[in-house]
Design goal:
With about 525 residues, the protein is an alpha/beta fold. The protein contains 13 helices and 28 strands.
């Protein structure tokens, strides 16, 4: 699994640095692991325990059953369910058949589900029975010919029927540049777009996780982030399959339950958002659990507070924290932070993964030198070729193979990438630009703060002022003001606060909805 790279032509016009030795498809990646580790445990989901040989057989049975019902290579198959063993089986059943999986979020509303099903032209859907009512009736979706449910519900064929066929063992001949999965982006500013993840990108991202996190067949990962999100799909499913390790399924995150499951199953690895680590420290006595096997804690989406890093290091000295930065469009990781560097480089998201090319560009499309701030552009074999049936958005957001991330960041003299803010979330206070991530990171470091969001408050004189929405217990505004005054420039300090105990609003993919916050506060 060495990382020797060579430049290759892909997607017609892109020349990207690829691993010279790699599986040529998602199905081939599973086949390699089955050949090496067939009897080893692949999935734990409650009482269900599947080996890799059993996962392979069930994927083959489901693939054969879907084919018998008319699903062909290239057809889209939608998955509307929470974290479960069936989700993993279906991902690899689609890969065997050469069909395109379309994972949908259970947190999405009916309108969003309808859009994704219609836009993708899905011919089949498999849904949890309690989510099936989100699927519109037949007249609204003429392409949707087959409906299956996990659990009984009228109008849906039982999922168990898909396991009745003899396994399809010969995979469909698909090229690694072809679409394997469509993931609909969060759509915080408009209609969600379908990012087209390819076999090439999935194999590269899974391999990068395995190599940089040093994952192997003895690793056991609790999967608590949504499997339908790019992080759960790549970091938890494909990466563990590539390593031959075990996935321990958790359907909903609760700190105490997570730690109980981690102890019971001997968890060695997981990936979560920083708020989840904070909840483990705030809501439990972590010393009561035997977590001695836990060696890798991946995270992303926000900086890890220094206080959290220090507390975890004291409670779990064998745990290495690794920050990951990526997006649906980059098939998950574009950068990873070496665990040994996390504490000293807390505000960095790490180094580019093998094959990733990251530039900092100004508004005129000129590359900026080390230390200067601009938009991050990302290219590599893991970057998607574009958006499903959306040439306008593809042309707008991709240039010469680079995905224009919309993130403001910089690369320091040692090559470490820093993400400062989303371009649309930068606060402009009388000409001073304030990056909300920097202020949020400081606020989250305060004891008792679980999460924070910094937004722009309209001002007739300065244009915008800094406002902070802070969630936690027994918070005092004066203490937060003093903390910011000690550590930030005066123009960066929040000038007003909203203190709350309710979680911040998030979209179906878990991102904080700052537009919703601004609407609630009347700041639009």
């Amino acid at each position: 699994m060495g990382k020797r790279l060579r430049h290759e032509l892909h997607f017609g016009t892109r020349v990207v640095a690829c691993r010279s030795e790699r599986p040529k498809s998602v199905d081939a990646m599973l086949a390699e692991t089955v050949a090496r580790h067939g009897p080893r445990l692949a999935i734990v989901d409650g009482e269900t325990r599947l080996s890799y040989a059993m996962l392979d057989e069930q994927a083959g049975r489901v693939a054969a059953s879907l084919a018998a019902r008319g699903v062909q290579t290239g057809d889209r198959v939608a998955l509307l369910m929470g974290n479960c063993a069936e989700f993993v089986v279906l991902i690899f059943a689609c890969a065997r058949l050469g069909a395109v999986s379309v994972p949908l979020s259970p947190r999405e509303r009916r309108a969003g589900i309808t859009h994704a099903l219609s836009d993708s032209g899905a011919v089949a859907v498999i849904a949890d029975s309690d989510l099936a009512t989100l699927v519109p009736d037949a007249p609204e979706l003429p392409d949707l010919r087959a409906r299956f449910s996990i659990g009984a519900i009228d109008g849906f064929e039982p999922y168990e029927n898909l396991l009745a066929s003899d396994p399809l063992t010969a995979p469909a001949p698909v090229h690694e540049d072809e679409i394997a999965t469509i993931l609909y982006t969060s759509g915080t500013t408009g209609t969600p777009k379908g990012a087209t993840l390819t076999g090439l990108g999935i194999v590269h991202s899974a391999t990068n996780f395995v190599e940089l996190m040093e994952l192997g067949s003895d690793d056991r990962s609790v999967v608590t982030v949504p499997m339908n999100h790019v992080t759960g799909l790549l970091a938890s499913i494909h990466a563990l399959v590539r390593a031959g390790g075990a996935m321990i399924v958790m359907r909903a995150f609760k700190a105490a339950h997570f730690l109980e499951l981690a102890q019971a199953e001997g968890m060695t690895h997981t990936i979560m958002v920083p708020a989840m680590y904070n909840l483990c420290l705030h809501q439990t006595d972590i010393s009561q659990y035997d977590l001695s096997a836990w060696r890798i804690g991946g995270y992303g989406g926000a900086p890890m507070p220094a206080a959290t890093i220090e507390r975890l290091a004291k409670a779990l000295p064998g745990l290495g924290l690794m920050n990951a930065y990526g997006a649906t469009e980059t098939t998950s990781p574009a950068t990873l932070m070496p665990a040994a560097e996390t504490a000293s480089r807390r505000l960095s998201v790490g180094l580019p993964v093998p094959g990733a090319e990251i530039l900092v560009m100004d508004e005129d499309g000129h590359e900026l030198p080390a230390g200067e701030t601009g938009e991050l552009w990302i290219r590599g074999p893991m970057v998607v070729p574009g958006y499903w049936k959306n040439e306008e958005a593809t042309a707008r957001e991709f240039t010469a193979g680079f995905w224009r991330s919309g993130d403001i960041g910089m690369i320091d003299a040692e090559g470490y990438v820093h993400v400062m803010d989303r371009r649309k979330d930068v606060v402009n206070r009388g000409g001073h630009k304030i990056y909300s991530a920097q202020v949020e990171s400081l606020l989250i470091a305060h004891p008792g703060v679980v999460e924070a969001a910094v937004i722009a408050k309209p001002c007739p004189i300065l244009g915008e002022r800094v406002h902070a929405v802070v969630v936690g217990d027994e918070l005092q505004e004066e203490a937060l003001r003093m903390l910011c005054a000690e550590r930030l420039a005066d123009y960066q300090c929040p000038e007003s606060y909203t203190l709350d105990t309710e979680p911040l609003p998030r979209n179906a993919n878990g991102k904080i909805l700052k537009r919703t916050i601004r609407e609630r506060l009347g700041f639009l």
